[in-house]
Amino acid sequence: MTPDDFNIMQKSVRKAKRIASEKAGEMHDLVEDRLPSAFEEIPKLAQETYDACLLWSKAEAEFQEVQNKLSKGYKG
What we know:
The protein is an all-alpha fold and about 80 residues long. The chain has 2 helices and no strands.
């Protein structure tokens, strides 16, 4: 893995985390400001939040795996 590949992967993980955090913020705003009247928004927003968090979780796990391999001298 080249340093550029590593940086691209790191940026991708950061972007995924930002998106997941934004979705979590939208969920928080829904709960704090718009419920119970906006209850119909819950399923869609919950799924979007779950999907964003799952994407971040997978990206983070892959990144950590690469980081661990690189710290042990793996060059592939």
